[in-house]
Amino acid sequence: MIERLVAMMDGFDREPGAALARHRSHELLRLAPGGRVVDVGCGTGTSVGELTAAGAVVSGVDVNPEVLVVAKERHPGGEFTEGSAQALPFPDGHFHGYRAERVYHAVADPVAALAEAARVLAPGGRIVLIGPNWEMLGLDSTDVETGRAVLMAQVASMPSPRSALLQRNLLLEAGFTEVEAEVHTAVLTGATGLPMLESAAAAAVGTGVVSAERAENWLTDQRARVERGRFFLAAPQFVVSGTRPAVG
């Protein structure tokens, strides 16, 4: 299970469109040298390593202890802590920057998570949220009906699958200023997209949306597409940033 998750994270991180969105998020933090930033949902630590190399002081947080083991192995000098977006183990106003990538769709209450983000940010601190809208994934498939059923089963398993579309308004409602939104599309054309589809198919079978045979036939076609260089998956990444207003 952890191997599939790490493979999925690594494949997505390497995709040029996803990497562009990630690097853009680093720019939008506007960190001065030595600035403190928390990376919520840090996964295997890709952004922690990149931001640290750029001179920031980074704290990586993730709810999955197994993923944190991988992050610590890859970035032995990094600071990694187990924790959730709704309960960060840091004092008020501690950070100059906050970023969360592919996190809020897994949070039952994005408003509470955003309130926690505001709590740990210093006045004038920057926040950047990145997330795909899972209902907008584009996948080329011979069996369109099964592909749609599998992807929608994955959406149904998420607490907040539409959170990416809400990010701009959530920041505005929470009082953040300088709120801006961008979209960067990740395009996967090789085997790096398969782990996500395999995970989605497992969810669809587990909930009875499709049979195991139907799911396997669909996956067989997607694997064959990879072999023939015909795999195509597009995932729009919504990048939303803002500034925590000064007190008073």
Helix/strand layout:
Blueprint: H1 2-14, H2 16-29, E1 36-40, H3 46-53, E2 57-62, H4 65-74, E3 79-82, E4 95-101, H5 110-120, E5 121-132, E6 138-139, H6 144-156, H7 163-173, E7 177-188, H8 194-206, H9 212-228, E8 233-243
Summarize the structure in words.
This protein is α/β, with parallel strands linked by helices. It has 9 helices and 8 strands. Strands 1, 2, 3, 4, 5, 6, 7 and 8 form an 8-stranded mixed beta sheet that branches. Strand 1, helix 3 and strand 2 form a beta-alpha-beta unit. Helix 1 crosses helix 8 and helix 8 runs antiparallel to helix 9. The longest helix has 17 residues.
Number of helices: 9
What is the rounded distance between the termini?
Answer: 48 Å
Overall geometry: globular
Radius of gyration: 18 Å
Structural class comes to: alpha/beta
Helix content: 40-55%
Approximately what portion of the residues adopt beta-strand conformation?
15-25%
Mean pLDDT: 93
Q: What is the H/E order?
A: HHEHEHEEHEEHHEHHE
Give me some keywords for this one:
248 residues; alpha/beta; eight-stranded mixed beta sheet; 8 strands
Short description:
The chain has 248 residues and is α/β, with parallel strands linked by helices.
